[in-house]
Amino acid sequence: MSYDILREILREARQFNPREFRVVASPKVIEFFLDEESQHLASLSDFIGKPISLQAEAAMAQEQYDIVLL
Question: Which run of H or of E encompasses 64?
Answer without folding.
Answer: none
